[in-house]
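[#protein-structures] MJ: dropping SCO family protein here for a structure pass
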Amino acid sequence: MASTRTYALVAATAAVALIGGTFYATWGGASDLFADCRAGTGPGLADALGGPFTLVDGSETAVTDADVITRPSLLYFGYTNCPDVCPTDTARNAEATDLVQAEGLEFQPVFITVDPARDTPEVVDQYASWMHPDMVGLTGSPEQVKAAADAFKVYFRPHEADDAFYLVDHTAYSYLVLPGHGTVDYFSRDTTPEEIASRSACFIRTAAAN
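AK: finished. structure tokens for SCO family protein:
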């Protein structure tokens, strides 16, 4: 367990450092539509994180990012056999979803596996449905999953194992993605459901007004 958390923390720290450098180099003092909604992340996140992907949904249908991100979405990369980090984070995201939806705003959580060998379309669909009725579960080939993870600067590494209970080290961030705007914010593990909901609602309302 400690190894998994250590790898995830190191990877997440490296990703944040890379993102921060990209913001500064690319955007400098550029005008930021969402300046009032950010919590120190700065503009330019859409260029630093995210991009086109093709994955497979619970009905075994190939879907693209355009098919999935039809409304404001909270993306999380994890795996269904994760013993502690993933269920905690995913439940937190489900709670944040309820809070945003309670304000009358469209919002959906998305779970993308980093363990396609075990997480079949049926498995991720059942897991997502159990976590939240609106949660979208996605898997794919190892190449498709890696491409999606790379787009969001997500690190993951399966442990070598000779049984069905191997662990997968992975970055544990959640990403707020808006149709037409791309990724606009991200949330660490210690961000509360209330803070995610508040920041997400700000982005959603700002996007709708512009």
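MJ: nice. The first strand starts at residue 54 and ends at 56.
AK: one more thing. The two ends are 45 Å apart (CA to CA).
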